[in-house]
């Protein structure tokens, strides 16, 4: 098999065509760049704090952002999950050195506990600690945005998990850029439209080290498996859902108004019902 761009020996398939390692890297980076542009994820002059866990997704994200030349530093949070955390920190140090990005490390232990001290519901405590520490570090150190390595399957499986458990407010947060307010720093997800397979192949093509192991306390992957199952039956399911989620605005009260024709509540000048009445009006019924 030959590369579709340069006829070198093919490495892997990316969005329907085979590419050599160099062209794969180029195609992948172009795709991330266009995702960042599409969702206006990074504004001019913004200082980015990239959350680096050492897994393939955040390694891919940090690599791409550093190659794009953004004003960038990384943050690793040591959660104190035994050997897993030790290895994550080791890889994060290595990656930051290879990519020549400054790495900051915050340790949950310095707040008096570690994830290993928590007996039940580790994942929610851990998720909360990560969000809290990232936000606080970013704000206290003058960063404008926090970038995380969430990939397409992460976002969709989070969406379905939250929809399933009735957490609608959380579902609304599965967006590429969530504006900060008050003490909350803006968050971005540069890999919003990239799949975990693409991220893995990219770090392999770039020959970057990453932690292959999953967190020993990680929740089951069944929601991700469901996403893959649906995608197999409904091609483009992932990308269409992601784009819908990204478009869906949080409806604020001021978005609502009164229909110019009938006075009922609507989000447009003339409500959908009145537009339908005008469109389908049958003179014989008058
Ligand atoms: P997760 O919450 O494990 O699915 O990870 C989602 C994203 O959060 C990763 O892609 C990273 O950007 C970030 N993240 C997760 N764990 C850590 C960590 N220990 N330190 C810094 N960032 C992390
Ligand atoms: Zn090529």
Automatic annotation (TrEMBL):
Keyword ATP-binding: yes
Chain positions recorded as ATP binding sites: 51-53, 57, 77, 149, 154
Gene Ontology MF terms in the entry: ATP binding; hydrolase activity; metal ion binding; transferase activity; tRNA binding
GO biological process, alphabetically ordered: tRNA wobble position uridine thiolation
Protein origin, superkingdom: Archaea
Keyword Hydrolase annotated: yes
Annotated keywords: ATP-binding, Hydrolase, Metal-binding, Nucleotide-binding, Transferase, Zinc
Binding-site residues for Zn(2+) 1, renumbered to this chain: 3, 6, 20, 23
Coiled-coil region: none
GO cellular component, one term: cytosolic tRNA wobble base thiouridylase complex
InterPro entries xref list: Rossmann-like_a/b/a_fold, TilS/TtcA_N, tRNA_thiolation_TtcA_Ctu1
tRNA(Ile)-lysidine/2-thiocytidine synthase N-terminal domain residues: 47-211
Binding residues for Zn(2+) 2: 259, 262, 271, 274
Range of residues in the leader sequence: none
PANTHER family: ATPASES OF THE PP SUPERFAMILY-RELATED, TRNA-5-METHYLURIDINE(54) 2-SULFURTRANSFERASE
Protein's UniProt name: Adenine nucleotide alpha hydrolase family protein
Species, as recorded: Geoglobus ahangari
Native organism taxonomy: Archaea, Methanobacteriati, Methanobacteriota, Archaeoglobi, Archaeoglobales
